[in-house]
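hey all, quick one before standup. I had two proteins in the batch that finished overnight and I want to keep them in one place so we stop losing track of which output belongs to which input. First protein below, input sequence then structure tokens straight from the run.
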Amino acid sequence: MSIISVIEFATLILLLLCYCATHKSRRMEIEEIEREGRNAKENADRLAERNRIAANKRKGVYGEDDANDALPPPVISSN
């Protein structure tokens, strides 16, 4: 084996080790980004639902899941 073949082989092994070492951390970073995206979507959905319920209550529309179904709609002033 010539010295050039040894250097090429050592370089190949070094590149393979670097790839294996960084692949796991890249995969973990990708999973973390995906998890943050799911959490952000869930938070946005929760916030939208809360805002929708609050808007309906302001308009006087009571949902079926509210505990105060027996209450009449609020009085709307003529002002």
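OK second protein, same deal, sequence then tokens:
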Amino acid sequence: MCSAIEDVQGVGYFFEPLRELERVAVEPLPDFDEFLVQWRALVEERVANTEKRGWDRREDRWLREVVECTQGPDGLAEVARQSRRSDDLRAWCRALVEAGDWTVARAAYEEAAELVEDRAYASGDFLDGAALAAQELGSDDLDAALERAWREAPSFSRLCRWLGGCSTQEELAALAGSALEMVPARAARQRALLHLLRGELSDAATLLADARELGWSDAEHPGHLVFPLFVGLLGGATIAVELPRSYDDMSSLMDDNQPKLTTPTVDPLLQLADLDAQEAAVRCVMIEAMRSAAEKRIEGVTANKRRHHYGHAASLAFSVRGPTAHQTARRGCAS
């Protein structure tokens, strides 16, 4: 079989050759169990003799497939614990999820988060898996699991999941304050949200004014969060914040038919925070930050000929020069 795969290399890819064999077979394959023993020995030899690299090779996938076929999740656990590679650990956890054993799956995800070689890159995904298991089990410590996932690998989605468990404005402000002490410096959108949830509009305005003129679609640019919210607060209207879809964690890529962590939008959090922008001095800071952001955005997209973003830049300028600015001026802030 290995020779046949080599012969068609470049024409097709066989990451799961055993499944392909079973798919095309019109009757039970003869001596299949003996073949599996020989196939596993061959694959293990190829894996052992291949240079270790960070990415997943086809031989790694072949090994996981034959191990799962012959030993199930227990065999995958043995492979994963030995290699500590994220792909092997993920396959082990996924097999447990597919079996519906959420209790064992949670323990596996938590162990994987500790074992994985590249913790900075992958541990958050495994802790998301542990939180998902807690959610599916209806565990009382779901909020703690969500908090751990965010603290280990801070992202906007994980932050919203954790804070989404708050039921009062006071609890929300307290958790946001503790999160501010740990949020990464580069995570401007997360930091802006935390300031907003504490009613610290001037601090959020500073982050907006200091943000880059390009990269608004970046997961940590505060523009798409702060600017429209300020428009609503200054104009006395309720505006739903629509953030670009973020791929900052793997759960956003999961199949829609699979269980997923519940990820609240920012709107319920902002409603619970009950923001108030009545003070004239605060409104002045907000409008100046919006003006700075709009001017930088226009300069950035025109200088770099980002024509697809000209409309967005123009809409920012209109928001600053339009009704928002006039209402702000009437409240005592010169425009």
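Flagging for whoever picks this up: The chain has 18 helices and no strands. The chain has a mean pLDDT of 86.
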